[in-house]
């Protein structure tokens, strides 16, 4: 089947060639972003993940700018629960979908840390943020399909509006969600087009997919929910070169001094308290031993210094493709990828690995469901 989609990550908090060495840091700049976006737009990728945290440039503005600069790729833009009124969100995303010619995906984010959201001025707990997310997506879907005021009354929002425009993509742009808590999985089962898993062993992912299909079936969506992996890629022409590159990437690293959080090591406890997905990634790191492998080509090393998706696929193009195929066998059809430095890694993957999937690539974004 031609159903596989690949996306890449835009490092709006900066890039690097060595995660533990500040001298190797590549600062944020339009020039850095341009290089990555060009590699992605010309490289066969379908979507471009826009990150959000205090050190990132604002995702919706960056996405809107690059929609006008690209021809192929769709921004995957965050909907951060509690940060924006759902009526405004519905208008913003429908407008961007229309203006881009139907190139938009929406990433549902509750945030990995209560400390971070509180620092932003959002006092809601993660449980409340997920409650709001459920209502926000329900409101948006109804606003996008109704020609009459929707009369929504929930725990957190009351909306009785009709809006224009409606999205160009029908019934709406695809929603992605990556989260490991019971609440996150239930909301994803109800609303997502693609449920994203952070790196794990393929057999574990197969079990999780079975569980998610059961949850989705309760909403009549058991066979429409799609699944994807959020992974790092370290690809070289030989396996020795790939592993050398992996080890260079974390040379001198101090465990849990997080490079993608402004509070560094001090942020770890707060993330552990509120992010079950991070708990799982860090548990894999702790269990992976001195070689930090959980599979012949799945490596936990980046999780030493990065919150979020830190599991990397390491190897030659054929080894990486074979490992990704194990996730396809488990039930995944989408891969949201990144690598360091991002433009170089995106070009390497598109030139050496994507051709191995050529006959199975989708011509379109994941189907909204």
If you had to describe this structure to a student in words, what would you say it looks like?
- The chain is 38% helix and 17% strand.
- By secondary structure, it is of the alpha/beta class.
- It has one domain (5-360): Luciferase-like domain (TIM Barrel, Alpha-Beta Barrel).
- The strands form three sheets. It has an eight-stranded parallel β-barrel with strand order 1-4-5-6-9-10-11-15, surrounded by five helices. A two-stranded antiparallel ribbon has the order 2-3.
- α1 runs parallel beside α12 and α6 (182-191) packs across α7.
- The protein is globular, with a radius of gyration of 19 Å.
Question: Any idea what the CATH architecture is?
Answer: Alpha-Beta Barrel
Cα-to-Cα separation, first versus last residue = 19 Å
Q: Output the number of helix runs.
A: 12
Shape: globular
Please write the CATH class name. Alpha Beta
- Walk across the major sheet and give the strand order: 1-4-5-6-9-10-11-15
Could you describe the largest sheet, including whether it forms a barrel? 8 strands, parallel, barrel
Percentage of residues in DSSP E strands: 15-25%
Output the CATH homologous superfamily.
Luciferase-like domain
| Number of spatially distinct domains | 1
Rg, nearest Å: 19 Å
Summed over residues and divided by their number, the pLDDT gives a mean of 92
Number of strands: 15
The string of secondary-structure elements, in order, is: EEEHEHEHEHHEEEHEHEHHHEEEHEH
Report the helical percentage: 25-40%
Structural class: alpha/beta
In the CATH hierarchy, the third-tier topology is known as TIM Barrel
Give the low-confidence spans: 260-265
